């Protein structure tokens, strides 16, 4: 039987309750415990350490069984989490507000000696110079609008050989991204898809337009454009540009020297490509940013693209603070359930940050995590004091 060490934070209990999940109170209590444990457990996390941070149970496998065999559907929980978050966000938005769907991928790296965990493979790591790393690879979606910045959903990417071994249909990263785009339910009508250069294929750009989203993203230097009807790639074309042909753009206190191309790109008839440098003599390597919305000015395109950084920040907090890649679970079913609980935890923290940010002077998710950890420590101290006081009272009342 599960014994709770500390009374759970009421805000977490209320949040899980607001999702209206059709599960037993026991299942919901496990969710409350794991969300609480993920937040307050410092340092390296295991399922046991997360679960035992909040509960006292002789059976250390309770948390693992919740992920492996208990009757609940993580995909349904994700749908309800997103629905609840969108409802919360819609209460604070105007029809004219601009939203941003951000797509990217990330790795949960493991030691190469780890063999029993399902779904691991060698995936190229952008952060490590495209060197292959033993890991899981996830394509994820993220929603940024006004003060809110929340993770939406994920798809695990399997290489062709791994897909065959797992009896799964192979989908490349662009196809997984398209699935996430299809699922996106925006709060307002004006939305942009923000991506890096791995997701600016013509297929993604057109799919975004079909789903009502213009795309802003980086493109690789070999992409073909047609200035004055002449076919060339953006890198070669950029070598002919002079400083007096650029305009100075300031965005987020950064200065860029920008050349604007508007015209054809591969299978897209009319796009904007910004070629930008940070040095006024154009001596540094240029960045190439595309926008399928040609009505936007240069500053707006760059300012919008900078919001793509939100997903990178979320990956950092997922891994450094919430233990996204620290699990030692073997089955993919349990791993996906665990990831869904991490996304649930992050969403709770973000909603709490926006709602209570002014009261507690939160600047970021890290401040919110620290708030709950400090609150946990206070409860531990109070519990210890109560135990000592109770023991003292009993010693005074009981005869020698």
UniProtKB/TrEMBL annotation:
A GO BP entry is: DNA transposition
Q: Where is the Transposase IS4-like domain?
A: 176-347
Q: Which domain of life is it from?
A: Bacteria
**InterPro entries for the chain:** IS701-like, RNaseH-like_sf, Transposase_11
Q: Name one GO molecular function term.
A: transposase activity
What NCBIfam families does its record include? transpos_IS701 (NF033540)
For this entry, the protein name equals Transposase
